[in-house]
Structures are given as C-alpha cells and as structure tokens.
Amino acid sequence: MADSLDAVNPSVRLAGNNRLCEGSNIVRQSLRIMALAIAFVLMSIGSAGAGKLTVAQQCEKAKIKADAEYANCVAKAKIKGITGERKKKEERLAKCELKLTKRLQKAEDRAERRRTLTLALQGSSEQAARM
Fold this sequence. Notes:
The chain is mostly helical. The protein has one domain. About 80% of the residues lie in helices and about 0% in strands. The chain has four helices and no strands.
C-alpha cells in the first residue's frame, strides 16, 4: 500500500507519515476554482451588453472584484499560516477584512455619486427640453 502512495505523487507525502498531505492539494484546488470563477464573472460582466454598464452593474462588478480580492488575500494568509508564519496570519486576516470593508464602501460611495450625477444630468436635460 505504501508503494502505491509513493507512486501517486511522492512530493506530496508528509515526512515520516504514510498519509498524503491533503491540505496543500485543497488549497491549490481552491485557488484554481477561485481563479476560474473570477475570470468567468469578469468575462460575463464585461460582455453583458454591447453598451455601457448601468450604475447598479458597475457597483455589483466592483463588489464582486472586492470579494475576489478578499478571497485571494485570505488564501495567502492561510498559506502563510501553514508555512510557519502563524503569528502573522491573524494580522494578515485582519488586514484582509479591513481592505474588504474599504473596497465595499468605496463601491457604494462611487455608485451613489454616479446615481446623483445621472439624476442631475437627466434633470438638466429635461429642463433644456422644456425651453
């Protein structure tokens, strides 16, 4: 049985243990899935229509991007925790949370400014049409 485990992938074996290291494979697989999901979402948002994105779509796009960056940040922090830098893991996770909060707030603020500008432009064009 041990020989068959060596044949699978000897570089993934834990030193002095006959079990395969599942943690590193899970992290790699999670990162691959996350990267594919991000690429799919960004491509679908980019090709959603031939015209410009609405304010709501732009806001949603920014939030999805922020979520993806947060997931990447958390994955990196977890990897650092596995590789022996456990003290910095909690600090990194806290920074990830802070960055996510700031990015989501920035997306909301930007959307609100765009809504206000759009309403102001619509109002001025309606006034011009009345004259």
